[in-house]
Write a structure and sequence with these properties.
The protein is of the alpha/beta class. The protein has an 8-stranded parallel barrel with strand order 1-2-5-6-11-12-13-16, surrounded by 8 helices. Strands 4-3-14 form a 3-stranded antiparallel β-sheet. A two-stranded antiparallel ribbon has the order 7-8. Helix 9 crosses helix 11.
Length: about 450
């Protein structure tokens, strides 16, 4: 008899974008600590595994001017998570930190410190920067090409693991009776040499409660999937619907096995949203209202400008798709988060086929295509949809976000979580003491007897 998979839940707070109804009367601040505290406390009340904080390193621009659908004023990730560690007890704290514009030693210290402060509840979401526009904000300047970004990110992860492992579990003795503080005089010694980093010295933070923080990553391309399958404890999947979600799930788990890992030790977690109603019809109507409000005509044009790389302001959002082709060679009209990783012409051709087949206007096409995988229905229907999705190996869990910040998650916790618990698919109480425990990841081997090996 097969056992039910336990659903992993993360609470996503991503800032201002085309998913966020920042203008809603019930919406709160995107920068005040009360926003982060309320979301985290609500997630912990719902027995979520972790709180996930996205990060923006540059304000996006359209034709040289900032536009208002962005993470404006977002505080730095790590101080926010450190503050949340003081007002939560069990909830994991996952932060997005860029591997392109940070250095191993400082990141290792920051995350190890947060793991100590939180009692072992820290996770690092590893991302890379994709453009020179963002690089201007940093002393490095410019940017790395795609292959070197992955090379740097891989070396960064290995470097941080070396630093975290430079202390053994028993190195910090602190024996008041004998006056002995350290077990060995070379605790924390490290030497790291590679194509990206050449550093050596003594790491200052003893081994943390988890041994080292959980590693999260997102990868869609073949190179990205291999990177995530090799280095990550969990992967953010962009696929929120079957069967493509199940295809991704099988593919990445197989890649993990190819790297000698137990596929069950790699968790797949798509982002998702939800809309609830007392009846199915009411939920459907609420969902249509939310999407109509999220994707205004201007928003639709800006999202398509990322693909066309043209000024589309002269087109009617309620008319057909632009009849011109993309212009990938022109200076970018959208900078900071542009559409750069897929074939523009193939995407436009596919969208035109979809718009013609479904009889969609420009704005309706954007609503149809720029979707985050919503679960829509009554609480019982949404609970069943989520449970079926996970049990059918679409994922190991979900990263849940709401268009309404910070109180949008309350409805999910109050109305859906109890039903998932009744189904036996979600914990009723926390059983572990660390994030690694709660995610069902195997414990790290205890370290003793020697300093960490170099990269």
């Amino acid at each position: 008899m097969s056992t039910r998979k336990q659903i992993i839940l993360g609470a996503y707070l991503g800032g201002v974008n085309h998913h966020t109804a920042w203008w809603h009367p019930d919406a709160g601040s995107q920068i005040d600590f009360s926003t982060f505290e309320h979301t985290a406390r609500t997630a912990e009340r719902g027995r979520f595994d972790f709180f996930f904080l996205a990060e923006g390193l540059a304000l996006r621009e359209r034709a040289g001017k900032i536009f208002d659908q962005d993470i404006v004023g977002r505080p730095d990730t790590l101080p926010v998570l450190a503050s949340l560690a003081a007002v939560t007890t069990h909830l994991g704290l996952a932060g997005t930190i860029n591997a392109t514009f940070n250095e191993p030693y400082e990141l290792a210290r920051q995350f190890a410190t947060l793991d100590h402060l939180s009692g072992g509840r820290t996770a690092w979401n590893v991302v890379t920067s994709f453009d020179a526009f963002t690089g201007r904000n940093f002393r490095r300047g410019g940017f790395l090409d795609r292959s070197r970004r992955y090379e740097r990110a891989a070396e960064m992860i290995e470097a941080l693991r070396t630093l975290w492992d430079s202390w053994d579990d028993e190195d910090l003795v602190a024996d008041k009776a004998t006056g002995r503080f350290l077990r060995r005089p070379d605790a924390g010694t490290f030497a790291i040499k590679g194509n990206q980093f050449d550093i050596h010295g003594r790491f200052t933070v003893p081994r943390s409660p988890q041994g080292r923080p959980v590693i999260l990553q997102a990868g869609v391309s073949p190179e990205g999937r291999d990177f995530a399958a090799r280095h990550s404890d969990a992967i953010f999947s962009p696929f929120g619907k079957l069967p493509e979600a199940a295809d991704f799930y099988r593919d990445v788990k197989a890649r993990a096995a190819k790297f000698g890992r137990n596929p069950d030790d790699l968790k797949i977690l798509p982002s998702a949203s939800f809309v609830l109603g007392d009846t199915e019809a009411e939920a459907g109507e609420r969902y249509r209202e939310v999407r109509e409000q999220q994707i205004t005509g201007r928003t639709a044009l800006i999202l398509l400008e990322q693909v066309w790389n043209r000024d589309l302001s002269g087109y009617d959002p309620d008319g057909p798709l632009p009849d011109v082709d993309p212009d990938p060679d022109a200076p970018p009209i959208i900078e900071g988060r542009a559409f750069v990783h897929q074939d523009r012409f193939a995407t436009v051709a596919r969208w035109r086929e979809i718009a013609e087949a479904k009889k969609l206007s420009l704005r309706e096409l954007v609503i149809d295509q720029f979707e985050r995988g919503p679960f829509v229905g009554t609480p019982a229907q949404v609970a069943q949809q989520i449970d079926d999705f996970v049990q059918d190996d679409g994922s190991d869990g979900l990263i849940i976000g709401s268009h309404l910040v910070p109180r949008g998650l309350d409805e999910f916790v109050d109305r859906v979580v109890p039903l998932l618990q009744e189904r036996g698919s979600l914990r009723a109480e926390y059983t572990g003491t660390t994030l690694r425990d709660n995610l069902g990841l195997p414990p790290l081997p205890r370290r003793s007897g020697s300093a960490a090996a170099a990269v």
